[in-house]
Design a protein that fits this description.
- With about 130 residues, the protein is mainly β.
- It has a domain of about 80 residues: Immunoglobulin-like.
- It contains no helices and 8 strands.
- The strands form 2 sheets. Strands 3, 4, 6, 7 and 8 form a 5-stranded antiparallel sheet that branches.
- About 15% of the residues are buried.
């Protein structure tokens, strides 16, 4: 089970307190970070290549200490981007094993531990035959 980023939690006396309910054989972890308003750097060097009918995307990894996750989108003309990736996604790559035929463009954006978002950086369009 995965919980989304919780923001704007007021700390009483500078302390974070929580009482989780967990099932047997479950691990609970917290990553408590200060809120940083600045968005993470936009992903760079976003490349999409076709190999053996699969679309392989890669980009430069974000090494900032407040980096949290990537969001990967499929981009279509005159439509909002469609989210493809599960959250969180911390790897700087993606393989679309069954891309549809036709032109395909992907977009990647970074998410900080505070939940701020970078711009969506598109790949170059690729023709899948």
């Amino acid at each position: 089970m995965f919980a989304l980023i919780r923001r704007d939690i007021a700390l009483r006396h500078g302390e974070f307190r929580d009482t989780p309910t967990i099932e047997p054989c479950t691990v609970v972890g917290y990553w408590v970070t200060p809120f940083i308003q600045d968005p993470p750097a936009d992903p760079s060097c976003v490349k999409a290549t076709i190999e053996e009918g699969q679309m392989i995307l890669c980009w430069e990894p974000n090494l900032a200490p407040f980096f949290y996750s990537y969001e990967l989108y499929v981009m279509r003309d005159s439509e909002p981007p469609e989210l493809l990736s599960a959250a969180p996604s911390r790897v700087a790559g993606w393989v679309d094993t069954t891309p549809p035929h036709g032109m395909r463009t992907y977009g990647v954006r970074a998410v900080s531990a505070s939940g701020t978002l970078s711009a969506i950086v598109p790949s170059y369009p690729n023709l899948i035959e």
